[in-house]
Write a structure and sequence with these properties.
The structure is a homodimer. Chain A is an alpha/beta fold. Chain A has nine helices and 16 strands. The interface between A and B is medium-sized, with 34 and 34 residues.
Chain lengths: 335, 335
């Protein structure tokens, strides 16, 4: 009987997440109950939200110390005790950070037969759809408007800019460091990029947005949100997608100027999660593939090798070291 | 030739507004230029926003030291050098705090022949329409939802609660002091009222909203907004109408938990001003009159006598001493 490599969260971090908060162990193969499917993880998604889950209940239960770290994977059914699934089926499942998991059939989602599988986590996955639905449904962009996105080189941000461009907007990215900023403009086609680590960040953002900011797609919160708030145009929209600047800390800090600027500028700040717009997922997938085919968007993936690379992969993601969608290859594509 | 009593803002306050920031003088009658109308002020509107104008440019220019204090009045045309206006016409005009003003005809708005005139500042004025449009268009209430409003005894808040009730919602008011809270329930028909000065405010708000908060109509910002933010239901809406807790200070303080709570709870925070919904003003007026006729809303007015009562009237309003719409009678109704 094969083992089941697992990574546990052994301590909930108060401040910065460290690899020492995790521990690898050889766990037991799970027993498959009636109504469940046993799956083998193939590709594990790493997301800033993983860190937010450690802070408490969000749209899902908190992750607690001593548990297998939570996470979603593309997985293959290896044994089924549920109607409608058979070995070899490809699914998306909340397996956590482990090689094998037994999951209630009602909680797994069948995946289309699409290759490479990694695209189902990036351009056709939560990353791409979060960018698409967030910008289009929440942001409601009009051609000619200026769209700013933070964490612009990340899994979601790297699609927000190109989608904004495809819709006729000016796209401005915010990222850490001149090299990443250059990459945003040269490789992803952003009109401009601004380094939030620059001491002149506020003025550089202003220079990059000569007509002000109509939509700010916020992945960071904190000081970057504040800089945008003060530069929003009347009737601007702030798409509240994430707050990665706030995840590695126990403080609840807020940008200054709220709610005053929302009142005076008649702004709309709105949070969402991707499943709010599930009814439009098919439209999103079709449009994203069409844009990818014509080069309007680029599919950027950052694939780490082996389950044991997950802890450092998440720590690094929170420090902004990834470009595009980061994931971990736990097992080869069985196809 | 008659004089023109004026009240100047002689100093822009950094912190709390005091009556010593104002000075009364006998000014000159203005000269009427071509295209202007000379008007006599009848009823001067006092609003928390008057204080915000002293902080800098908002939806209008800032009010500067040495200028006649800005404000809107119901006024009577006494001389016209503009087509379409004649002496005796009743208008709404940005006269400022003075007995007479000469105003470009394009900037005055003709008023309907309605009595008492004071209703045109309260139930049929900006106060009533701000409550109506803000709650209905921005808040989008559904029957059965819980609506909380701060500054609930004020000009706008005193309509928000009763409108929420008329729409089948649970209405909870936040005000300062047990007496005002009692009045909200007994006189205005709120389901519950909570005293923000109570040391147990957070828990009392929770007890008043057993099903959580679906819509928070925010007139205050600050700590009251924060208490609501933490108790909002998923997909809740925060109608950002004003931030009176922030006006009498030079600090830009924000409630904690932003944008994290907006993301996690998928909230919408949206600012507006009443003129954003001018196209629906006629509908608002008709509905408000119908509700007033059947007693569903009560028209609460707080009318001070004489222009010289304006400084103390505004200082007191910012301290929350008014109930319903506060205004100053500068001259008797000419009818």
């Amino acid at each position: 009987m094969p083992g089941n490599k697992q990574i546990l969260l052994v301590e909930r971090p108060d401040e910065a997440l460290l690899t020492s908060h995790f521990q690898t162990r050889d766990g037991q193969m799970p027993e498959v109950q009636i109504g469940e499917v046993l799956v083998r993880s193939i590709l594990l998604s790493l997301d800033a939200a993983n860190r937010a889950w450690m802070q408490g209940a969000t749209y899902r239960d908190a992750v607690n110390a001593g548990e297998v770290m939570a996470g979603g994977t593309i997985a293959e059914v290896v044994e089924s005790r549920a109607d409608g699934f058979k070995p070899g089926d490809l699914v998306m499942a909340e397996t956590g950070w482990q090689e094998f998991a037994s999951v209630p059939a009602g909680k797994v989602h069948r995946l289309p037969d699409y290759r490479p599988l990694s695209n189902l986590l990036s351009v056709l996955g939560v990353a791409g759809k979060t960018a698409y639905h967030g910008l289009i449904e929440v942001g409601q962009p009009k051609a000619g408007e200026t769209v700013v996105v933070s964490a612009a080189a990340g899994s979601v941000g790297s699609y927000v800019g190109p989608i904004a461009k495809a819709l006729g907007c000016r796209a401005v990215g915010i990222a850490g460091g001149p090299e990443k900023c250059e990459w945003l403009v040269d490789e992803l086609g952003f009109d401009a990029a601004v380094d939030y680590k620059s001491p002149d960040f506020f003025r550089e953002l202003k220079a990059a947005c000569p007509d002000g900011i109509d939509i700010y797609f916020d992945n960071t919160g904190g000081a970057i949100l504040e800089a945008n708030l003060f530069q929003m145009n009347m009737k601007g929209r702030i798409v509240c997608c994430g707050a990665v600047s706030q995840y590695n800390t126990s403080e609840l800090s807020s940008p200054r100027g709220l709610p005053g600027l929302v009142v005076v500028k008649r702004l709309r700040m709105e949070g969402f999660i991707v499943s709010d717009f599930a009814a439009k997922d098919a439209e999103a997938e079709k449009q994203m593939l069409a844009w990818a085919a014509t080069g309007k968007i680029k599919v950027i993936e950052d694939i780490l090798d082996g389950l044991e690379s997950a802890p450092q992969g998440l720590v690094g993601l929170l420090a902004g070291e990834n470009r595009g969608k980061r994931m971990v290859r736990v097992a080869p594509d069985p196809a």
